[in-house]
Specification:
There is one protein chain. With 106 residues, the protein is mainly α. The protein has a single domain, classed as Helix Hairpins. The chain has 6 helices and no strands. The protein is globular and about 50 Å long. The chain starts with 5 loop residues before the first helix and ends with a helix.
Length: 106
């Protein structure tokens, strides 16, 4: 088990966001704006789904890492800290997933 966390990755994204786009993929992606970063996140999500459906565990791990990274980039651009997402997840654990979903009217 690793000690590396999503919070650690969020800090790295924040650090690299201030770099030159010529020196950092993160800065380059951020410079292209939220729409482009969200598009890239969507591509990674599709690739993760394909890996899951084809039961390719190695690719699923890699694509999941890409997806989490791109999600944090999109959150950074949107000005939404990871803590806010974690608070939302925590609030959902107070009840079962089925009850929570029913409460949203879905």
């Amino acid at each position: 088990m690793t000690d590396f966390s999503l919070s650690d990755l969020e800090k790295i994204v924040a650090e690299r966001a201030s770099a030159s786009p010529e020196e950092s993929w993160t800065a380059k992606l951020i410079s292209k704006g939220q729409e482009k970063a969200a598009q890239k996140m969507g591509e990674e999500a599709v690739e993760a789904v394909i890996a899951a459906v084809t039961r390719n565990d190695g690719e699923l791990v890699k694509e999941s890492a890409d997806l989490l990274y791109h999600l944090l980039v999109v959150l950074k651009i949107a000005g939404i800290p990871l803590d806010r997402v974690m608070e939302e997840l925590q609030s959902r654990t107070a009840q079962s997933g089925l009850a929570e979903k029913a409460g949203r009217g879905q």
